[in-house]
Amino acid sequence: MxxxxxxFADWYRSAALTSPEGLLKNRWAGVQDIAxxxxxxxxxxxxxxxxxxxxxxxxxSAVPVGFRDAFRAHxxxxxxxxxxxxxxxxxxxxxxxxxxxxxxxxxxxxxxxxCGSFGPREAATLEREHLETAQRFLVQHSRTSHxxxxxxxxxxxxFTKEKLGGAFPANIFTVHQTPxxxxxxxxxxxxxxxxxxxxxxxVQEAIEQLTHTANVREEEVAILWWIxxxxxxxxxxxxxxxxxxxxxxxxxMELADLTMFVPGSESTIAVxxxxxxxxxxxxxxxxxxxxxxxxxxxxxxxxxxxxxxKTNSTGLLTPILLAIHKSLETEGRDEWLPVxxxxxxxxxxxxxxxxxxxxxxxxxxxxxxAIAEAAQ
Length: 376
Prior knowledge:
Blueprint lengths: L7 H7 L9 H14 L6 H11 L12 H6 L11 H17 L5 H11 L3 H4 L4 H18 L15 H7 L14 H48 L1 E2 L4 E2 L5 H15 L9 H11 L8 E2 L1 H6 L3 H10 L10 H8 L9 H8 L8 E2 H22 L1
Antiparallel strand pairs: 1-2, 3-4
């Protein structure tokens, strides 16, 4: 069993809870048990844990089936109800553990936590250290996923006449020596097969490295052409003809379409800031409400977007995408606002810096991409 995280007790204190005396190791064992159960086929469990940890006013219905059983296996007295605050602490611990394991589902866990902590939720988070860890991981993972590796030189095995002659002495081919031919022949063939296998493996690795480098360059060139051309792919308009209000929503969606590697490039923020500036934004710190930004986009574009990007599994973890979906449930420009308020705690009329909204929406798209990759 992995040693208990050194800050585990502090996570309880941050949530204004007293850590269970003598049972912290048992709780950590439960955290590990659940983390081990999370596979690509059950990756949506991470979304459930992120909702438990980041969303305010969660209810019993948010607790995944069997969650408490994992902790009851290490403590018969683990409460079966009325312990939601501890459940939230444990959900956060599971996400933190998955992130720190730097495994295939770590980007999904980090994105779910980051997206779910948008806006006022960030200030109310139970443990800010989890969010900071997730953000650092995403930066580092972005660098790693975009790193180009020079292929390792392929060593081609050489089997000369002299080398094979050494394996088969001349006298072994006489009539009386024929029974002794099997062993050296098998040894020689085994060496040949081993050398060819090693060479082919190196070739495969080199091809994979070259393919990765080509994909990185393809992503970079696509984004570069997009920002250099100043042209919206979806609206077929110059950035200058797209209001920065609409661009706050439109640009991160188009940039996400061009992004091949989760969680995106390190230059994402700079690219979005530049795109907004080209669309007429006075500065990236200029503020806008979610309602105004969504309403500034054409309804036809929103309909196409919602058809392509469902939020069934993410829900409140993707509040900007959710707002785009809700904007289509009514006909009037502002009639959808009460609909959104009923389902989300994120204030629809509160101004947010343009870049905060754009970056949040980009991360929401990356979360959907990470979910899709896990499903594959």
